[in-house]
Structure to design on (339 residues):
């Protein structure tokens, strides 16, 4: 039988996080029959849930050679590594502890998903629900959205950001090069690299988001040049007020920019006639857990400005605005369904 489910590397981080949380819950020794039933329901709800559980179960099976308390500590450490990535001293301690446990169980750290370890090793990162401002030496400013990881190099030779995961808004300062004279000086470009290609600007403001198999880019001020793949394809210019997605094979059609795309810098999501499922997906990026829509209400439309740091307030507003109710299986698993 052919497995038609998603590959482990294509799983949404929120799905993996919920799977880890369930694993920790069931391994804790305090899980009830209702907890086991709820987990079983979640596993069979979607193919990606089953895939995430199967991936983690392989790790869990190897841990069975350890004492139960040590196995639980390893799973808890794995969850802490995902949820508390910003606390560097704690993260390093947990990583060492997890490496010891994994080594004892006969599992190498190299078996972890590549993107996950790249995120942990990135020079700048945010955890779920966190945002961060980073000022660079050249005068540029980076605004990191939730669950973002990137590496920065700004020196005499280059200005480069490698976006490993997540989303960043860049205020790019113009930087003059050093030619033979003032008239020959050229601006040194600012480069952002993603898994799908390269974005280059000289100055301005733009957003780059790493999606599962694509890169989203929006020009807010100025312009950016986008080069898909490894450079064999010709670059295309995106001007202010436009946005598009691209992959390694090419660039999609340019669209009018979503005026609210950068509102997250101020802790907001701007919805304009947005499907409820799309709003739930955006809100899920900012919380530890899982917020989803039942199919019966997924296409309902909603408009408004919603704070990303107060999910309870947002869910209450949604229930007042639309004929839906929120059902919480746990504090971190909420489903919006028909009322």
């Amino acid at each position: 039988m052919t497995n038609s489910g998603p590959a482990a590397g294509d799983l949404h981080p929120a799905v993996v996080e919920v799977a880890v949380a369930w694993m920790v819950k069931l391994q804790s020794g305090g899980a009830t029959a209702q907890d086991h039933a709820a987990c079983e329901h979640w596993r069979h709800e979607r193919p990606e849930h089953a895939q995430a559980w199967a991936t983690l179960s392989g790790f869990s099976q190897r841990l069975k050679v350890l004492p139960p308390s040590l196995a639980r500590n390893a799973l808890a450490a794995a969850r802490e590594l995902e949820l508390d990535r910003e606390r560097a001293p704690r993260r390093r301690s947990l990583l060492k502890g997890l490496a010891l446990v994994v080594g004892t169980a006969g599992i190498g750290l190299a078996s972890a998903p590549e993107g996950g370890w790249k995120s942990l090793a990135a020079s700048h990162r945010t955890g779920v629900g966190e945002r961060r401002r980073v000022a660079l030496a050249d005068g540029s400013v980076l605004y990191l959205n939730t669950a973002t990881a990137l590496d920065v190099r700004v020196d005499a030779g280059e200005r480069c950001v490698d976006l490993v995961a997540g989303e960043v808004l860049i205020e790019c300062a113009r930087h003059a090069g050093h030619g033979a004279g003032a008239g020959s000086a050229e601006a040194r470009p600012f480069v952002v690299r993603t898994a799908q290609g390269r974005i280059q600007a000289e100055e301005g403001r733009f957003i780059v988001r790493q999606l599962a198999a694509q890169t989203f880019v929006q020009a807010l001020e100025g312009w950016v040049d986008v080069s898909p793949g490894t450079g064999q394809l010709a670059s295309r210019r995106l001007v202010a007020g436009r946005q598009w997605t691209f992959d390694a094979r090419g660039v999609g059609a340019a669209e009018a920019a979503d005026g609210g795309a950068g509102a997250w810098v101020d802790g907001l999501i701007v919805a304009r006639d947005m499907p409820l499922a799309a709003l739930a997906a955006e809100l899920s990026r900012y919380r530890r857990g899982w917020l989803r829509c039942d199919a019966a209400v997924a296409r309902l439309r909603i408009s408004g400005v919603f704070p990303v740091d107060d999910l309870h307030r947002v869910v209450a507003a949604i229930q007042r605005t639309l004929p839906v109710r929120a059902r919480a299986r746990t504090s971190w698993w909420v489903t919006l369904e028909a009322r």
